[in-house]
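Hi X.,

You mentioned you wanted examples for the new student's onboarding notes, showing what a folding record looks like when two proteins sit in one file. Here is a clean example. The first protein comes first, with its sequence line followed by its structure tokens.
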Amino acid sequence: MGPAISFGDANAGFQAGIVNGSVNTTFHLPPERRETPPLPDIVIPFARDADFVERGTTLDQLQQRCAAPDARAALVGLGGVGKSQLAIEHAYRTRERSPQTWVFWVHASNADRFEQSYRDIADQVKIAGRRDPQANIFKLVHDWLCDCKQQWLLVLDNIDDARFLLSYQANSDGQGQTTNTPVIWKPLRKYLPHCKRGSILVTTRNEEAALKLVERRDIVRVEPMDKAEGLALFKKKLGPQGNNSDVAELAAALEYMPLAIVQAAAYILQRGPRCSVAKYLDEYRKSERKRTSLLDYDEGHLRRDGQAKNSIIVTWQISFEYIQQTRSSAADLLSLMSFFDRQEDDTSQSSAGDDEFGDDVVVLRNFCFISTDAGGTVFEMHALVQLAMRKWLKANSKLEQWKQQFVSNLCAAFPTGEYENWAACQALYAHAKAAIGQKPKDESSIAEWATVLYRAEWFAERIGNITDAKMLAMKAMKARKKVLGQEDEGTLWSIAMVADAYSLGGQWDEAEKLRKQVMETRKKKLGADHPDTLTSMANLASTLWNQGRWDTAEELEVQVMETRKKKLGADHPDTLTSMANLAFTWKAQGRNVEAIALIR
């Protein structure tokens, strides 16, 4: 083997002539120069937001928690609710209060981004040995933080899936690729130091992930803005247009969700002056399809992770997919819930056992997709979450499946409108109205859908809600005519319900036409003395009575009374009802003596 040859300062190596055996070489990088330690700084990838809106006492709570030695806290809330914006503002306020405090930002959505953030920290604070390919960058940063003489704040942003923090990590080349000589390290969670001078703030949509890093008492829940906060944000983002009177309505329609407000403001400004607040609001109200289109807009936010989506629809769908992968039964429950009214009881409960159902509810609560009352039987979802979920179902060809399941569950639960069922009807009434816009395509499901609306109309009529009664009855009647046919008994009952609704509103002529139609069809199909035929005759007589056509009404009522006497007996409740009706007709005609005798 020949002598070692120097190639100058730029390189070093060896040259061999004839080699008869194995050759082992070791390369030594030139020693690193000692670098001057930098002064404490704020190292985050976002500028401070001049449009920041105070969120009640949330930042005060954070400041109190993070002021304690070795503090850890977590902001937990729905995607787009403003967790990262609160963390950014907290970071800058921390730096303002204490200029000698280091502030670092770690993108923590996955292992690769976590590692890159640690490498960025190592570069910023100039940790010796950080360029060594064999170095454990996590340990270097961990040890530096532990030894740091200044206070520091570490923000871990967007830890929705904490599993990568809990698994053992192999040595990588800094680009996310595992090297040929892996060295197994501790779980990444172990490289988040406990240190008296440091505090860690986590942002996450998933409470379960937060609990891997902080105590439950240190979780700060972030809810959508209240009305005043939502309006303030809209006005700041819209500028002069923010004084428009429609802003309050649009903020309410967007449920005071910060990301949706920022997104809508960006959309309006980019398309101005042709697109105004009023124009956006009008388009938003047109249809579910239009709403999802507007909420899919992916612009307008400078203070979000570059790899995150600005579309609030897509933001939530990412979480849906995570739940689908990790607990499919919870995803199924959320799919079903997305069709019910936003406040719902456990009508949506699947046939699975209570334990499984309870576990599914916990998963959905952890992601802030639902909240529950104290008894755990009433759930609430944001309407925008429901909209996003239905869009996701449509994109994944599952919309009809879950729409049919929703209708079937509701049909089985919604009772008829008799007085003894009113409490149950009232509890389910909002869900029946939610079903109006969720008509399925399958014919058998359409029949169930029509039954739900028919029973809801029955209840609406009984409590005197004329507007709802007419609307529900018309939709049920049209659906039954199409699916069951004009002469089906279910269709006839729906036609009779529409007539009842007309009568309730004093539209006697329209009611008369429909009641004649029902009566004649039943006479032909069931016979003149069938109980249902007699009921339709009595209803028609009632309509005629209200029109002041007492002679015609009397003819029908006498016929109904005599037939019921013959078929049911003189003392049957239906017979007695028809006798009472006839008595009131005689009274209206001024035949008081006969009326009193009949009533007696």
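Then the second protein repeats the pattern, sequence line and then tokens:
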Amino acid sequence: MAMGRTADISRAGTIYAALLLLFAGLAFTNVALGEFQYLPVTFFRSHDLPVLAMVMALFLIVRVARMPDSLVAGMDTLFGRMKLLPHWAPVLFIFTLALLGAFGILGSYPLSMDEYWARADGYALASGRAMAEIPADLRDYAGAMHPIFARVSGDGLYWASTYLPVNALFQGLLGPLASPLFAAGAAALLVQLVRQHLPEAKTAPIICLVLAATSAQWVITGMTSFAMSAHLFFNLAWLALVFRKGAAVQIAAGLVAFLAVGLHQFAFFPVFAGFFILELFLSGRRGTAIGQGVVVLAAVAFWASWNGIAYKLVGSLPPAVGGAANAPLADKVMALLTRNDLSAIGTMGMNLLRFQLWQNPLLLPLFALAVPVAWKLKGFWRGCLLSALATLAFMAVVIPYQGHGWGYRYLHHVLGNVTLLAALGWSRLRMSESRAARASFAAAALIALALIPYRYVQAHDFAQPWQQADRAIAKVDAEVLIVDAPDHLFADDLVRNLPEDRPGPVRMARAALTDAQLADLCSRFRVATFGGADAEAAGLPSIGYRGDGDNAQNACAPEGKEQAED
């Protein structure tokens, strides 16, 4: 019997290498064909290739060389100690790493505009307002003050992001504790779920927790204000409720589903939940399935109307019809479904390679080994499998480009599914009976744990140029600062004006200002410019910068040569 378990862990290693080669092949093909998108290609080259080379080298060494018995025995002993860990220890570990990283690694700086808007909207929502009020003397400049992902009321009095508000509300209420709490809470829910659906497997809870705590994606995404940690938590909370019986439990599940749909994009939860609802229906719990399906559809209808509701709550008018932000829902869906080309295949190769390399090395192999087991078991376990695969297919077709993200964040909300299935594979294949499997699990945990500090450094170094530029702008002695660095990537992401009490000048994007508007600003305010030289000095990536600009120049001076006081 132990020989069979040893063969299973050997097969897991082969699966891991095969997946790496497949995803890396797709990624290399994309680069070779010249399909250059800065973020996925940069992450591929600078973040993931070094780790890919290292893990493949380790794989070859393990395959070719015979590991000393003393090393195998040591890893086996370590596994035995892992089993004795109290369940709260990995949960606390995740929370602590995420919270410390949010301040120490990312400097509590919301790098992407998704993260920024979660905080900006959260500031308004926590203050009891559905939208933030635009400063009265700057209402004509709202488009320049927030050129990305913003919507402005029809009367020009209020603004907010184009995202749904629930994650932002939690970010506003809990501040930097929000995402670390969601990340740690999601890990705690894994224990509840595996006890509920795999009660005979005594080691399954700690297997889940170790896989979660050694996932760099799980931990580092928990440092950010991205909605993905909240999605993961709410998905698992819904699963912990919906497969139980009782009216009160189902009402609670419906409330969780309602909030989950409104976190930031309403499509995420329905795609995740659909196959679980189907499995409930097929298992005979038709009333529960229909009830939850109705709740999800009603939640989609409500949150799809959120923009209009927000305008009414602040007593304002919706904007005029037209523009991407105000397009009908059906038009948005069709645009997403028809916008992709073959380059999306290579982009997804980079995404999936990144997803695999930011996890514990045994996560995806154990998941793959669990596929036939989950299919045979049906119910909850088949729902876990189909939910994850449906989400992958949806993202590949609709949103192959993730933009910023640590790991592949568009699969983050099904990371719980994958982890639970990995624990199922470990348990049903009885790998705890194999010394080689136990030693391999402990070794994989050590390797993944050792990689987390390296991923910390990568995240810090990548975010540093924008953090430095943001700090420099906050110190400029001016009332208005014009960001005018078109030759540098994501320079307009530095244009941030919420919350209202942020330090430094009001920021505006030069590309969104007319010459007449600039002249008007110069007549009313002290104005400076963050130009190409400033962006170069901060280290922002260049797309052809020629170095022909002054640092923090006065935008209103003749020829733009007078320097603003710093």
